[in-house]
User: Fold TRAP transporter substrate-binding protein from Virgibacillus xinjiangensis.
Amino acid sequence: MRKFIGGIAVLIPILLLAACGPDGSILGQGGKELKLAHNQSLDHPVHKSLAEFARLVEDKSEGEISVEIFANGQLGSEREAIELTQTGAVDLSKVSASALESFESDYSIFSVPYVFEDYQQFEKAMNNKEVTDRLYLQTEDIGFRALTYYNAGERNLYTKNREVKDVSGMEGLKVRVQPSQTSVGMIESFGAVPTSMAYGEVYTALQAGVIDAAENNETALVNNNHGEVAKYYMYTEHQIVPDMLIMNSARFDRFSEEEQQVILEAAEESTIYHEDVWKETIKENTEIAKNEMNVKFVEVDKQSFIDSVQAMHEDFAQSEKTGEIYKLVKGAAE
Assistant:
């Protein structure tokens, strides 16, 4: 019965997307209307930037190509969105780089704690063509390619009722992590207990004491109301994990070179647009969390956290699977 229900759940969005265009073509497969899935709310900065991408595509193509956005996880989880993009049931999706780890190990580089010392190093790497060509095109043989990235901020620790000043304060804390082996290893290196769970469960888990802490950027405090139950926000700045805009590779290849250029230019320009939207959002959210939700923002001894994960860096650098991307990204960042 569960398998049957699960199959129906996957089939419904696919049927929803298989709408015929005016010429009888299947939109999202042969027509010029693109379907884009993501799991953020309509007021999230990433959604605003995706809406800008859609506007730019239509404008640059003089109305020949349009993009319909399915927000709020309407078409499923991030993993489901990736799988739908692989099969071509949707044309594009916005997913966290960490969600792509299980599809391509190169994406695990973003989960390595402190692989970037600051956001400037991250930008250097993401504006390096050798880095982006490897990351963006590495997955073409499994059904999708990346078009661009969006700043998802620096990930920091927030706790329900414990102020953490250095890594020793992490001892025994139950911390929600993303479904990423690298993130699990990071929390263990900090001396805490990693707990994987869906993002939508974090609020009630913090409230009930199932977990003591989580880690994310400042938008989580306000957009997801985590600041109502988590009263300490520590600037650990342990990861910079971007959001990625991916597209079904066969769908991309069916466009002419001129149309491909339109899509790529729109993606790049939407990333530039996103930087300003993101900075303003973080500023606003921090003020709301501080003044209206009484969240205390704490500076930490970041070096103690950096020291605790050096073994992870050595493992990545020496691994046959991740050594090449680690060296490439570190070299570009520095």
The chain is about 45% helix and 15% strand. The chain has a mean pLDDT of 91. The domain at 154-240+282-333 is CATH 3.40.190.170 (D-Maltodextrin-Binding Protein; domain 2).
